[in-house]
Specification:
By secondary structure, this protein is mainly β. The protein is built from 6 helices and 56 strands. It has 4 domains: about 120 residues, Orthogonal Bundle (Arc Repressor Mutant, subunit A), CATH 1.10.10.10; about 55 residues, no CATH class; about 260 residues, 6 Propeller (Neuraminidase), CATH 2.120.10; about 260 residues, TolB, C-terminal domain (Neuraminidase). The strands form 14 sheets. Strands 4-3-2-1-8 form a 5-stranded antiparallel beta sheet, with no helix packed on it. A 4-stranded antiparallel beta sheet has the order 9-56-31-30, with no helix packed on it. A 4-stranded antiparallel beta sheet has the order 10-11-12-13, with no helix packed on it. α1 packs across α3 and α5 runs antiparallel to α6. It starts with a strand and ends with a strand.
């Protein structure tokens, strides 16, 4: 079978799940490669969903979104840096590979007859072979071997045959016993971690603790109280040998995510500066402190990047994003050749991508977390020998980090914020191994004993209010007085939004333990209007024009909340729409605008509530997070993969760019009011709330934490409410049985 071909300038190596072009190397998941091969063998043909399921998915029952995901992954990967399309969507019929295909050897393309056994079957069968099956294969192999030998020596004495079977039986028994003990050891539950030892007592915050390979040292990031900079510290795990804390880095930097070299003589870490990310290394010899050394660039924005040092010591594996709106991917950098290889591809997802990672102690596997939906995570496992990736767990709410058991048989993660769970790779079971009254962050396991380092601490997000006013000239806005607390609790309150006709506000809060929607009346009274028990995420709130209903979405369903009756009702839910996000009301309240990437790219759609939920596509050049003008003539929106705020004429069907320094992360952080644009910038060097007043120059109205991208604006444009993050204290604890 021909397994190498060229499409769209890319050389495709099917056997290695590998794409290459102009010196760039990308690995893709096996299912995506199977799909691409099938399209290449049927170039120019329209392939239906049913045909893909039959020929590539092996007839398995899969949802439409599984197919959309693979097609979009291929589309985003192959079309990057090119103006020519690779795939075409033929509405209601399927997909078509329109780019020319050139097979790179003389082997003929696979025929339809050869595809009777679906391509994906080889991957499914490979994963279904367990050690129990291996034992069965050993029995069959022994039987075949003995039969063959018996036939070839049929004239030998019968006692030889008996001795042969006896020896084979003994060897087989030994193999079965060894297999049993090997796997039963892996299947044994971990000991519960009930002992707690405080490890740090520094003033400020700690994060990213990581054990050295010999388990004797712990490196971590620390930010002193009243400072905005993080630095790398090291401390001996055994307090008897050394209880001092060694500071390795300094300066006006954010140094984080330390990773030990296998020999324990170096530490790699991220160094973030405004608009820049660099991977650094520093020598650690317990006596002198050397200057850090720059290794390679790792993109611009400071996100939840993570870093690991390969078992050989020759590579660094890290997660990185090249822009605020590009999902993070995992890369491997060779310290020997300087070659950068992309290991994962998250281009088609709508979340932050592949963020946190953990290398198994045996160095053969990489566990990583994929943020697929702004807080909804998946746990994946990448085999570093075959480079095949496997989805282990879905729907992990806001999972931030993972680690491994010391024997590489279990993956440890945080559940429900304050529980440590161990997931067995052998049987897929989950076990609670530790509980804590405070939230647990950044777990990291010792590679030599049953001990886990965790970070615990207190943090709070309240909602504050700032009075503003327009100057007499009408071309500028200014602050009035100092900001003051508007909504405060001991929990996290966020996503505030003012009503349309009063200073009543709605917000999302965790104060009851679950995510709920709350109301704050003008007089200050606060109360919940929901009682959700399904753990849903709420990422947006918008008031109806009459201020009775709140509009939101969760799990690709648009729903309304009656603030008087305090109940929620689903407004739109359709299995043919795999993604439905950021809904908003039309000016007259008769329609709902929402965003979806149903056909491969995020567009704006209009749902006519008053006409039987008829859906109409509005944009064709991309759109996300829409707001209709007060007169209903224009639509304002962002774009998912392109910075900028855009204005679209609903009558002329034309669009224009209004403002450049805003992106999709500010989808809850912009308002167009008359001739004024209020928005949260994507400028990391000068973060804050900006105003473009009546076509005049843009000015920063007030600074904001760069992680705050949401605010509410009062109906009279005289008040701004926004989440405010408070200084927090955290420390490292060591848990053991």
């Amino acid at each position: 079978m021909n397994k190498r071909f060229r499409v769209g300038g890319w050389v495709v190596d099917y056997s290695g799940n590998h794409l290459s072009k102009d010196g760039q190397s990308i690995r893709v998941e096996p299912l995506a490669m199977d799909t691409l091969l099938y399209f290449a063998q049927h170039q120019g043909e329209v392939i239906s969903r049913d045909e893909l399921i039959d020929k590539v998915w092996g007839g398995k029952i899969v949802g439409d979104h599984a197919i959309y995901r693979i097609i979009n992954l291929l589309r985003k990967t192959l079309e990057q840096g090119s103006s020519e399309p690779i795939f075409a969507t033929v509405r209601k019929k399927g997909y078509q590979l329109v780019a020319p295909v050139e097979f790179l050897n003389t082997e003929p393309a696979i025929s339809n007859d050869e595809l009777v056994t679906p391509i994906i079957q080889k991957h499914v069968e490979a994963k279904l072979v367990s050690h129990k099956d291996s034992a069965t294969e050993s029995i069959e192999a022994a039987s075949l071997e003995s039969s063959s030998v018996s036939d070839s020596i049929s004239e030998t004495p019968k006692t030889f045959s008996i001795n042969f079977y006896l020896i084979a039986s003994i060897l087989l028994s030994i193999a079965l016993i060894s297999t049993y003990f090997y796997w039963s050891k892996d299947s044994q539950p971990m000991s519960e971690l009930t002992k707690v030892r405080p490890f740090t007592n520094l003033l400020g915050e700690e994060k990213h603790p990581v054990y050295s390979k010999d388990g004797e040292w712990l490196a971590f990031s620390h930010r002193p109280a009243a400072s905005q900079y993080w630095h790398i510290y090291v401390k001996a795990v055994d307090p008897v040998s050394d209880s001092s804390v060694i500071k390795l880095t300094d300066g006006e930097y954010i140094d984080e995510a330390p990773a030990w070299s296998p020999d324990g003589n170096q530490i790699a870490f991220f160094r973030h500066q405004p608009g820049k990310c660099t991977i650094m290394t520093i020598k650690f010899d317990r006596k002198t402190i050397d200057s850090p050394k720059e290794i390679t660039d790792c993109g611009g924005p400071a996100q939840l990047n993570d870093l690991a040092w390969s078992a050989s010591g020759d590579e660094l594996i890290f997660s990185s994003s090249r822009s605020d709106i590009e999902p993070s991917k995992i890369y491997q950098f060779s310290l020997v050749s300087g070659r950068l290889t992309q290991l994962t591809n998250s281009a088609t997802i709508k979340g932050k991508g592949d963020l946190k990672l953990a290398l198994s102690p045996d160095g053969t596997k990489l566990a990583y977390l994929r943020d697929v939906d702004w807080g909804n995570s998946e746990l994946h496992l990448l085999d570093l020998e075959s480079f095949e990736s496997e989805l282990l767990i879905e729907n992990l709410e806001r999972l931030k980090s993972v680690t491994w058991s010391k024997d590489s048989s279990k993956i440890i993660y945080v559940s429900d914020y304050n529980q440590l769970m161990a997931y067995s790779l052998r049987d897929g079971t989950h076990q609670t191994i530790a509980r804590n009254v405070q939230r647990i962050h950044s777990p990291n396991s010792s590679p030599v004993k049953d001990e886990v380092a965790i970070v615990v601490g207190q943090s709070a997000i309240d909602i504050w209010q700032q009075n503003i006013q327009e100057t007499e000239s009408g071309d500028k806005w200014e602050l009035l007085d100092a900001p003051n607390s508007f909504i405060s609790s001991s929990a996290i309150d966020y996503f505030p939004v003012y009503a349309n006709n009063s200073n009543k506000a709605a917000f999302v809060s965790l104060r009851s333990g679950d995510i709920q929607v709350w109301i704050r009346e003008e007089q200050g009274k606060e109360y919940p209007v929901t009682n959700f028990k399904d753990g849903r995420s709420i990422n947006r709130l918008r008031w109806s024009p009459d201020d009775r209903y709140l509009l939101s979405e969760s799990n690709n369903q648009i729903f309304t909340i009656d603030t008087k009756l305090k109940n929620a009702e689903i407004l739109f839910s359709d299995d043919e729409w795999p993604t439905v996000e950021v809904p908003s009301w039309s000016a007259d309240g008769k329609s709902i605008y929402f965003s979806s990437d149903k056909d491969g790219e995020w567009q704006i759609f209009r749902l006519s509530v008053s006409s039987g939920n008829v859906v109409e596509q509005i944009t064709s050049l991309g759109g996300y997070s829409a707001q209709e003008s007060e007169n209903g003539e224009f639509l304002y929106y962002l774009k998912y993969h392109k910075p900028g705020l855009w204005k679209y004429s609903l009558t002329e069907k034309t669009e224009e760019l209004l403002q450049e320094d805003i992106d999709v992360y500010s989808h809850n952080g912009w308002y167009v009011r008359g001739d004024n644009i209020f928005y949260v910038t994507n400028n990391v060097e000068a973060p804050g709330l900006y105003v473009k007043a009546k076509g005049a120059s843009v000015e920063r109205l007030m600074p904001l934490n760069p992680f705050i991208r949401a605010f509410g604006l009062s109906p009279n444009n005289d008040r701004v409410i926004y989440p405010k993050m408070f200084e927090s204290e955290s420390s490292i604890l060591l848990l053991s049985p």
